[in-house]
Design a protein that fits this description.
By secondary structure, the protein is of the alpha+beta class. 45% of the residues lie in helices and 13% in strands. It contains six helices and five strands. Helix 2 packs across helix 4 and helix 3 (57-66) crosses helix 4. It binds zinc ion (3 copies).
Length: 165
């Protein structure tokens, strides 16, 4: 386990602890906020955390069916809405897919780095970007409903692999 780049963990990192930490945080957060983390919501969250790549709604449906749970698409979409609204997952618009949030319960502006080679997504929380954008939009009298910043490229590990070739 090399913790040198926690944003893009390598394949042999202790992912089990990523998942259990994420689920524990979500459980604690929901309890504290009086939110109902139902079995399905929990299951969907766990599936999203299965790896550090964004997961699409269709894929989630398929996996739930595999696990013997016949979930109707609307219920899965509702579970996703719940998870998004409460900041447990983020939607990656360019991939039309979801990733788990590692800053749940913290006021943050997320920026995403998306590796086009391995598909991993890292979440950044750079407050400076948020303040620049709100300054600019304020000046234009524009009221922001939602903004996401998605930056595509190649992560450190994938870069190393291509450079070694
Ligand atoms: Zn992990
Ligand atoms: Zn987040
Ligand atoms: Zn990569």
């Amino acid at each position: 386990m090399k913790p040198n780049n926690p944003a893009f963990p390598n394949a042999d990192h202790d992912h089990k602890s990523c998942v259990s930490n994420a689920l524990k945080n979500a459980e604690a957060y929901c309890q504290q906020q009086g939110l109902r983390l139902t079995k399905l919501r929990h299951q969907v969250l766990e599936l999203i955390w299965a790896n550090h790549q964004p997961v699409g709604a269709y894929e989630l449906l398929e996996q739930l069916t595999h696990e013997g749970r016949k979930a109707a698409p609307p219920t899965v979409y509702r579970a996703l809405d719940f998870l998004m609204e409460n900041g447990l997952v983020h939607r990656i618009s360019s991939r039309n897919a979801y990733v788990g949030c590692s800053h749940t319960g913290q006021d943050h502006t997320a920026q995403f780095l998306i590796c086009e080679t391995c598909g991993q997504v890292a979440e950044l929380d750079d407050k400076r970007i948020g303040s620049v954008i709100s300054k600019d939009t304020d000046q234009l009298g524009f009221s922001v409903a939602q903004w996401t910043l998605e930056i595509t490229g190649t992560c450190e590990q994938c870069r190393r692999v291509t450079e070694d070739e």
